[in-house]
Amino acid sequence: MCNPLxxxxxxxxxxxxxxxxxxxxxxxxxxxxxxxxxxxQRLARRRPSLSETRFPEKAFKxxxxxxxxxTSEQALMGGPLSTVAGKAQFRSSRDMEFGNLRPLTxxxxxxxxxxxxDGADLEELNHRIRSQLGNDVIxxxxxxxxxxxxxFLEGKGPExxxxxxxxxxxxxxxxxxxxxxxxxxxxxxxxxxYDRNAYTITGCFTQFLGMLSLYCIYPTxxxxxxxxxEYHMILLGGWALRANxxxxxxxxxxxxxxxxxxxxxxxxxxxxxxARVRDVEGEGAGVNPAKPTEGSEPPSSRGRRLxxxxxxxxxxxxxxx
Length: 321
Known about the structure:
There is one protein chain. This protein has eight helices and seven strands; from the N terminus they run αβααααββαβαβββα. With 321 residues, it is α/β, with parallel strands linked by helices. A hairpin with a 4-residue loop joins strand 5 (200-206) and strand 6 (211-220). The protein is globular and about 60 Å long. The termini are far apart.
């Protein structure tokens, strides 16, 4: 009797090596994407809701205590993160297994389960996109779960390993970047667009000092014909949110700005893909997605269908509120 294949997670010693050998890099600094400076400038924008009059020192100290008293990842990703997120509304979810996506590498990695992520509504995607790209852009078979996620955050409590959180963030981000790349190439005559721009943000939030680190991740062309795209995770910035009110305001502004920026990228990619489908449908022809570059079967070949099942974790309003 054959033993089942052991699947690797971020807590296994070879996880980092496996990602690197499969072209999913965590070098953090080089090569930066073409729009790296633009993203950093966007993250640095001030937000009136974080001014001293609207978020006074007393509120900061309350946040710092909440982070200090967080005894688990769940506690950290509850109250403290809800303060960081603010009142913005996005299609978001937490701790959701990405069971509907095709493997990112050779199938030996466990399915991703981001601590927190933002995506779009399923109904925003044209039905042809849903049917042909489902296993690239629809992480769950539940119709109310977010799709095309491109903003991720992993949390680590006082006993969690920050290094493990960064590996998880890298894995999450590569899946998100692959989905965005596939959407950009769907119905496009030239196929996937390797423009060296980042359209996905991933990060980690740890209990120690309330450290928030944000990264962009972007794809580059396969090194070999028939190979898989490569993905590069690049540091955007880090903020010790517990250190002082100035660090808190800068880091929280970056987080909120990053979510808004990611939504803008997501919305534009969806708008463009839907428009290409409508244009071709108007001509009475079928639309074929760009050929997969990773040597695997088309996503639709797995035969998984979207089955309506309620998911109490997700609602249209921000789940962190």
